[in-house]
Amino acid sequence: MEIRFLGHSCFQIKGRKGIVATDPYDDSCGLKLPEVSADIVTISHKHADHNNVAAVSGTARRKKPFVVAGPGEYEIAGVSIFGFPSFHDDAKGKKRGKNTVYIIKMDNLRLGHLGDLGELLNDRQLEEMNGLDLLFIPVGGVYTINAHQAVEVVAKIQPKIVIPMHYQLPKLNLKLAPVNDFLKASGVEGLEPVNKLVVSYDKLPEERMTVVFNARG
To answer: Out of 3.60.15.10, 3.40.50.300, 3.60.160.10, 2.60.40.1190, which CATH number does the structure's domain 2-193 have?
Structure first.
């Protein structure tokens, strides 16, 4: 599996049988989404910096990506996706509405994308994420959980690989906290950003690993 960071909460995840793109954004957030193709697009919520489906092209397998935009169970292009509801804030959605958390199963790996999670997960939600191999987690605060809350969520889920997202980037006009706040709160030092991540089930790290990608903006 190959993972590329396209900025904000958007990733392209290439598996053996399918390609998934998560939360594509439009130009209103200050970033320019690079060209991206996928068999499946997941949308955590309907805000413009997460739901620009039109920017994602299809592949040789699918001329037009299948869009997953809410809770449910999906099986597309050899990829299994389970979405469950959460909130975009700590007031049961009264401030910013609902958010969908996705568990993506591909290449024998279980990936979790938390979207714009704005609350701490409850026991039932945590149970759904048991045995997660890789976690995409927002860390920039303001509109989502902050760095210290993200550390708490990671400790409860205990994924093998942690990928922070939704933090301040060059040109991003949302004024989020930098990823270094999360790294410091996690006790992670001397981390070198990467351009892409290649991961397989048989080569998962024995100890938890945090991955930060080179910034796009």
So the answer is: 3.60.15.10
pTM (two decimals) = 0.96
- Give phi and psi for 185, each to the nearest 5: -65, -25
Low-confidence ranges of the chain (pLDDT < 50): 217
How many whole angstroms separate alpha carbon 112 and alpha carbon 83? Answer: 10
Which of helix, strand or coil describes residue 105?
strand
Q: Where are the domains of the chain?
A: 2-193
Question: Do 9 and 115 meet the contact criterion of CB atoms below 8 Å apart?
Answer: yes
Q: Which of 73, 74, 148, 85 is nearest to 117 (CA)?
A: 85
pLDDT at 92: 80
8 and 71 in contact (C-beta within 8 Å)?
no
Residues 216, 7 contacting (CB under 8 angstroms): yes
CA distance 41 to 113: 12
The per-residue DSSP string of 64-122 comes to SPEEE-SSEEEEETTEEEEEEEEESSSSTTTTT-EEEEEEEEETTEEEEE--S--S---
Backbone angles phi, psi at 183, to 5 degrees: -60, -40
pLDDT at 217: 41
- Round to whole Å and give the CA distance between 70 and 99: 8
Residue 174 buriedness (CB in 10 A; 0-12 / 13-18 / 19+):
middle
Q: How much is the pLDDT for 158?
A: 96
